[in-house]
Amino acid sequence: MLDEISNELKTLFSVTLKQAMDSFQDYLQDNNITPTQMNMMTHLYYLGSCEITRMSGLMETNKSAVSQLVDRMVNQNLLERNEVPGDRRSRELHLTDRGRSLVEGGLKARQEWFESVCARQPEETQKEVYQALCLFNRIFSSDSSSK
Predict the structure, then answer these.
(1) Residue 78 in contact with residue 37, Cβ under 8 Å?
(2) Can you give the residue ranges of the HTH marR-type domain (predicted)?
(3) Is 42 helix (H, G, I), strand (E, B) or coil?
(4) Of 94, 56, 61, 55, residue with least CA distance to 78
């Protein structure tokens, strides 16, 4: 039985990841945003403000490449770049309202495919999926909390 469960999980993860990423990629193209820009904005969305030096570490690239990307994103009204109080050489990055909205839209775009598939199913199937997902979450949540 473990082989069957494993195969179904592989299929589930493969299909949902592909569809979610396709939806996300469409969202990026529709909004003229590169994956690298979205990566930076997502870091800022979860971290809050961040200095350029730290961002270069998070993005695993050099500071000059991050600075060039930041320049473009400031011009697109996606980010703000401000001096760090007490250190004129350092710059701190913040999302603009537009940048925050784009990140939130990107998160939503990843989920919309799954929601639309579920919405097309009969109510009884939706209930079965819900119950299976609740069980799945309970099993895997309890396993991760025991470590």
Answers:
(1) yes
(2) 1-141
(3) helix
(4) 94
Query: How many residues would you count in the chain?
Result: 147
pLDDT tens digits, 37-55: 999 999 999 999 998 889 9
| Single-letter code of the amino acid located at 17 | L
Residue 29 burial class via C-beta count within 10 angstroms: exposed 0-12, middle 13-18, buried 19 and up: exposed
Tell me the CB-side half-sphere exposure of residue 94, using CA atoms within 13 A. 7
- How do strand 87-95 and strand 79-84 relate by DSSP bridges? antiparallel
Model pLDDT for residues 73-95, shown as the tens digit of each residue: 999 999 999 887 777 777 899 99
Burial of 66 (0-12, 13-18, 19+ CB in 10 A): buried
Between 22 and 98, the higher pLDDT residue: 98
> For residue 137, with 0-12 CB atoms within 10 Å meaning exposed, 13-18 middle and 19 or more buried, which class applies?
exposed
pLDDT above 90 for 35? yes
Three-state DSSP class for residue 85: coil
Give me the domains of the chain, ranges plus CATH numbers: 2-145 (1.10.10.10)
The pLDDT-based confidence of 144 (bands split at 50, 70, 90) is low
